[in-house]
Design a protein that fits this description.
349 residues, alpha+beta, five-stranded antiparallel beta sheet, 38% helix, globular
Length: 349
């Protein structure tokens, strides 16, 4: 994630902000350009981006102007009420129930961060209107007495249990399942990994390499799920996987590795935007990459930044008496899987 500044006064702002804390300007994100901008409301749903050289006007997304759970803009000439992110959500929580609007807001905020990273990686997002069979769609549902909602993906439909937006509930589940890392954004990144497996790997020239690294995805998923929850992950899972859950099935190994790769790209990008760069010669990485000469060097650069950066992140947190933000150790086999994800994304881009 890059660092944004208010275009009216140059004050640093966050991706989620709707108002500049210094000058009070209304803020909005323009998805076509990837820019956060200060806006002037010129009336009749015509908002002008501050310091813009063109004559293009925008208006706030309906969920920005009315519901206050968004900060993206829509071109004023568009017939769409919703921004590119909100158009992907087909079912939202019952807003009459307590805290449901808060959960919805958190879900949409995490989804917007996901979409920003996908845009940076030049990964195409098809909507249901563009591709009714497999276009991307999100449903934010709630479990009830006779209906249990499971977070998951199927044919482009990503269902999120809104309970994942409840920090206390999510932390209890994280501890109960022995997961060192469980976040709302992580769920989005994991599920979108399943979506892009179908788009970028299944039925392509990448499938043979995938099976060599991750295993045969034709293995019965239901049997693998039952085995995992009855027996748990192998004790030595860290030798080849980024997480214990990744051992369950090749599809889950891919989705966990994909999610981890997006964590790395976004964190290293944010560190770079903040002017933070820790040379790997100061903190030597615990492994080397045996990479074919035909591969692009950008993944090696990512790893060279990632290892010392996570050491610094963990050290800073320990100085504050906080848990490690990165409680992982990447084995060489897991690194090769991450490199494969990078290669697939780079090819698609």
């Amino acid at each position: 994630m890059r660092i944004f500044h208010c275009t009216a006064c140059a004050h640093p702002i966050f991706f989620e902000h709707v108002q500049c804390e210094r000058c009070g300007s209304a803020l909005g994100f323009i998805s076509e350009t990837g820019e956060m901008s200060a806006f002037t409301d010129e009336g009749t749903n015509r908002w002008k981006a501050h310091n813009s050289a063109d004559d293009k006007f925008y208006r706030p997304c309906h969920n920005y102007a009315i519901e206050h759970v968004c900060n993206w803009m829509v071109p004023s000439a568009s017939d769409d009420r919703y921004c590119e992110s909100c158009r992907l959500t087909s079912i939202i929580p019952n807003l009459r129930a307590p805290r449901r609007k808060h959960y919805w807001s958190r879900l949409e905020a995490a989804k917007r961060r996901l979409l920003y990273t996908l845009s940076v990686l030049q990964l195409r997002v098809e909507t249901r209107q563009q591709n009714p069979a497999t276009g991307l769609q999100f449903e934010f549902r709630e479990s009830r007495a006779n209906t249990i909602v499971t977070t998951g993906h199927k044919d482009g439909l990503i269902t999120m249990n809104i309970a994942e937006a409840d920090d206390m509930r999510r932390e209890r589940v994280r501890i109960a399942l022995g997961e060192p890392y469980r976040t709302l954004l992580g769920h989005f990144r994991h599920e979108i990994g399943h979506y892009y497996f179908d788009r970028l790997v299944a039925g392509t020239e990448h499938l043979r390499s995938f099976r060599t690294l991750f295993g045969d995805e034709r293995k019965d998923y239901g049997d693998a799920l039952d085995f995992h929850y009855h027996n748990g992950a192998p004790a030595d899972w860290g030798k080849a996987y980024v997480s214990a859950y990744a051992t369950m099935h090749p599809w889950e190994d891919w989705a966990e590795t994909w999610s981890h790769y997006l964590h790395m790209v976004d964190t290293v990008g944010t560190a770079s935007a903040c002017g933070i760069r820790i040379e790997s010669r100061d903190l030597t990485a615990p492994y080397s990459i045996d990479r074919p000469a035909s591969r692009l060097p950008s993944f090696e650069s990512l790893i060279e930044q990632w290892c010392p950066l996570t050491y610094a992140m963990n050290s800073l947190n320990r100085s504050l008496g906080m848990p490690d933000p990165y409680p992982f150790t990447l084995a060489p086999a897991a690194v090769k899987k991450l490199e494969f994800v990078h290669y697939v994304i780079d090819t698609a881009g």
